[in-house]
């Protein structure tokens, strides 16, 4: 291994004047190796992660791919080797560079320092200097074409993909000694990481990294950003004085991460229990039925699975059971369950917690939507995670809840994330850190419920999500009670890029599985198909679509006979008026309750309304006692309810 220039350890990478130790700054190469050490440990201990990278870079041997990934992850903060970044912490600079910079004798304007973006500068400096690093000419830019996306992925770890033409590099006014020192440091860092990561795999800087597609770039960017979040945690990576050789420092950090089980403690690694069959997810008196009977016939391989079956037929349990099989096989290491509304996400959050206990024993279930802080169950989960500080391992099942819950982006990094579908769609929209969501989805089984409930714009975004999942070897399960043939074909085509044709034809209920360009339908045996039901349909022409006296009387009569009745109206005002009128009609029957459910409550009150609706009209609700629910359309896709008579 080549000798490592000592001076590069005197660039600071992390600095904090309030750090609780005498060492107030952390050397730049040490921090870069902290992040690379997290990446190396995660890679070596997570088969699902390796599988996603091998799918994204299909023609590169695994040992060489690992070397390239670690090399570029280590370079994520290359732009910090620049005097303008170093001047952001003058106290650390004065300590580290005592003989180079004296006071304000650097000739750089304050605005240039404060506006300096080290991520954008990293790829920009690389574009200017890579030919000297490689000791070769690249007149056709064929070499840079390979480096570009790799560097964009890692230098964009703070939220976006930078471009080489960073304006901040133009016209730097500083002493030539400082400029030359920065240039030499960047070259030394690249050479050092070549020695530490590339050469052990038989590679060097003259070798070309494998082509990096846009989905592969997003995968690498999300991985690097996640590793940087952990590698920047001073609870795990304390500041060190620059007194250890870099190769020795890397070995010590790798040993520290492994011995402390850091990735497990932060919820990023957790081995799934052996698959116990779908029956393990059912009640004592229940057995697999309908599409549930097909789950064990599916291949334990990455792909798109589409389940179409009636409401209440067990699609959720079928999807979770199949996800469990993929977890056991190492195809995925986590589950993301996306639902159309906050109410359905809240309800699924409660259901998934018991599933998580069966699959992981100890697991982190994280909720993500705009009002999750009002969810009592989720807040209790976080509070239990915070109590672990005082109670040791008693609360190990939620030991990383606070960390995962600190950002909705991180919902995709734990074992199980429950979210509204918009959180998934953000992975393909131009928002900061979208690639963290994408990375989390890639390594997870993505389950999307009520797939029929979205609009054309959302289907377009969902199609992009599915394309990214397919490109990186991920898995997805889509659930629906009613799906048109054209929409089913569109979703399957989004996965494999080809029209499914006659392959999608199968009698309802059914299940489809797509791998590569092959779509295989699975049909439920006649003995397991749901019994045919007769549903009485009556069409009434009423002014303003509002129940008249006769219909209101029929509603009350049905409730008095023990029926659970729901009336869905268009307006909140109509719902409130109808509830008042019906309460007057049942005033002589105090046993009959008239409930109301709409979206115009305070969120905290709405959660109480949701809980009450589930209690009185859900799958476990008592039968035989009549009750009436007046609701707006929000009830249609928000809650898992069962009525004897539905009026709308």
Can you put this structure into words, describing what you see?
This protein has 648 residues and is of the alpha/beta class. The chain has 23 helices and 14 strands. The protein has an eight-stranded mixed sheet, with helices on both faces. The chain has a four-stranded parallel sheet with strand order 12-13-11-14, with helices on both faces. A hairpin with a 2-residue loop joins strand 9 and strand 10. Helix 7 runs antiparallel to helix 8. The longest helix is centred in the N-terminal third of the chain and has 23 residues. The protein is elongated and about 90 Å long. About 5% of the residues have low confidence.
How would you summarize what this structure contains?
The protein has 648 residues and is of the alpha/beta class. The chain has helices spanning 28-45, 47-56, 62-74, 83-86, 90-96, 110-114, 118-134, 142-155, 176-198, 214-231, 246-259, 262-265, 315-328, 342-360, 376-391, 401-405, 421-425, 434-442, 456-471, 485-496, 549-560, 572-585, 603-617, and strands at residues 12-15, 25-27, 304-308, 334-339, 365-368, 416-420, 444-448, 475-480, 510-515, 518-523, 564-568, 593-597, 627-631, 645-647. Helix 19 (456-471) links the parallel strand 7 and strand 8.
């Amino acid at each position: 291994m080549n000798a490592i220039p000592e001076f590069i350890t005197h660039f600071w990478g992390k600095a904090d004047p309030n750090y609780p130790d005498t060492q107030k700054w952390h050397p730049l190469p040490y921090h870069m190796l902290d992040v690379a050490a997290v990446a190396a440990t995660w890679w070596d201990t997570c088969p699902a992660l390796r599988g996603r990278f091998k799918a994204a870079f299909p023609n590169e041997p695994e040992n060489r791919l690992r070397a390239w990934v670690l090399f570029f992850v280590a370079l994520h903060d290359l732009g910090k080797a620049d005097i303008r970044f170093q001047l952001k912490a003058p106290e650390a600079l004065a300590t580290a560079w005592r003989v180079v910079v004296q006071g304000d004798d650097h000739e750089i304007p304050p605005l240039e320092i404060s506006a300096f973006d080290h991520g954008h500068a990293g790829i920009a400096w690389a574009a200017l200097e890579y030919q000297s690093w490689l000791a070769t000419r690249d007149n056709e830019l064929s070499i840079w074409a390979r480096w570009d996306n790799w560097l964009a992925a890692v230098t964009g770890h703070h939220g976006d993909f930078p471009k080489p033409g960073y304006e901040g590099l133009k016209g730097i006014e500083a002493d030539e000694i400082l400029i030359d020192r920065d240039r030499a440091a960047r070259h030394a860092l690249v050479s050092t990481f070549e020695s530490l990561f590339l050469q052990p795999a038989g590679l060097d800087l003259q070798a070309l990294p494998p082509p990096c597609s846009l989905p592969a770039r997003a995968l690498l960017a999300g991985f690097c950003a996640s590793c940087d979040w952990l590698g920047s945690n001073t609870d795990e990576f304390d500041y060190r004085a620059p007194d250890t050789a870099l190769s020795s420092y890397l070995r010590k950090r790798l040993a520290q991460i492994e011995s402390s089980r850091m990735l497990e403690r932060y919820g990023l690694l957790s081995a799934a229990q052996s698959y116990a069959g779908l029956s393990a997810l059912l009640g004592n008196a229940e057995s697999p039925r309908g599409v549930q009977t097909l789950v064990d016939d599916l291949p334990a391989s990455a792909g798109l699975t589409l389940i179409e079956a009636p409401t209440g037929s067990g699609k959720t349990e079928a999807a979770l059971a199949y996800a469990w099989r993929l977890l056991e096989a190492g195809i995925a290491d986590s589950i993301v369950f996306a639902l159309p509304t906050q109410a359905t996400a809240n309800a699924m959050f409660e259901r998934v917690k018991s599933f998580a206990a069966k699959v992981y024993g100890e697991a982190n279930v994280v909720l993500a939507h705009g009002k999750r802080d009002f969810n009592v169950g989720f807040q209790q989960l976080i509070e239990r995670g915070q109590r672990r500080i005082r109670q040791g391992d008693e609360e190990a099942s939620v030991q990383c809840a606070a960390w995962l819950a600190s950002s909705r982006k991180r919902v995709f990094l734990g074992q199980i994330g429950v979210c509204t579908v918009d959180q998934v769609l953000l992975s393909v929209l131009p928002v900061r850190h979208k690639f963290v969501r994408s990375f989390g989805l890639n390594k997870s089984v993505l389950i999307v419920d009520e797939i029929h409930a979205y609009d054309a714009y959302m289907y377009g975004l969902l199609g992009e999500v599915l394309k990214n999942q397919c490109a990186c070897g991920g898995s997805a399960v889509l659930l629906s009670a009613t799906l048109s043939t054209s929409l089913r074909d569109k979703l399957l085509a989004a996965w494999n890029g080809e029209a499914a044709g006659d392959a999608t034809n199968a009698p309802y209920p059914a299940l489809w599985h797509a791998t590569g360009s092959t779509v295989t339908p699975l049909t439920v045996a006649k003995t397991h198909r749901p019994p045919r039901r007769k549903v009485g349909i009556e069409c009434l022409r009423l002014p303003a679509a509002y129940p008249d006296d006769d219909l209101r009387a029929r509603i009350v009569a049905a409730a008095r006979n023990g029926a659970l009745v729901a009336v869905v109206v268009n307006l909140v005002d109509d719902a409130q008026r109808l509830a008042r009128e019906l309460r007057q009609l049942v005033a002589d029957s105090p046993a009959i309750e008239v409930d109301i459910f709409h979206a115009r409550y305070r969120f905290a009150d709405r959660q109480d309304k949701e809980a009450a609706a589930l209690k009185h009209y859900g799958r476990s609700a008592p039968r035989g006692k009549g009750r009436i629910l007046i609701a707006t359309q929000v009830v249609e896709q928000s809650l898992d309810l069962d009525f004897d008579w539905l009026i709308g």
